[in-house]
Known about the structure:
The protein is of the alpha+beta class. It has helices at residues 79-85, 141-152, and strands spanning 26-28, 36-41, 44-50, 56-62, 71-77, 107-109, 113-116, 119-122, 135-138. It is built from two helices and nine strands, in the order βββββαββββα.
Amino acid sequence: MPLTKEPRKMRxxxxxxxxxxxxxxxxxxxxxxxKGRALARRGAWVRIVRCFDGTFQVDWQITPGLQCWxxxxxxxxxxxxxxxxxxxxxxxxxxxxxxxxxSGGKSFVDGIYVRYLDYLNIxxxxxxxxxxxxxxxxxxxxxxDALRPLLTAVPK
Length: 156
């Protein structure tokens, strides 16, 4: 019987700090459409709100499966930081993006976020494993499209 070789699967360019469970997030209904968005997946949620002063607040909580403990956090973003972090800048992206420093990010602000391509961690890189004190978000086209209106929303 001839040996057949399985085709090699292409791996996505995940940075080591990105938790792949982030791909499970789904946009959720969130109060007033003009001022916020929410993402949820089993055991985690993220809430993004446009504040009265024009800044953004990103809150998250992770409860690892069947654990009695949870990790949560909250980070303020300026509008520019928010646009850069979530890939909403109108500046054209280069074909190839090099990674910055040891965290392997294309864009970052210490203690706020680190991003490489469409992979975002808030507030820092971490290990990519469950239990990290950060949240990973996969920046899909649908998510970016849902977040864009927040840039022009007037909080009430």
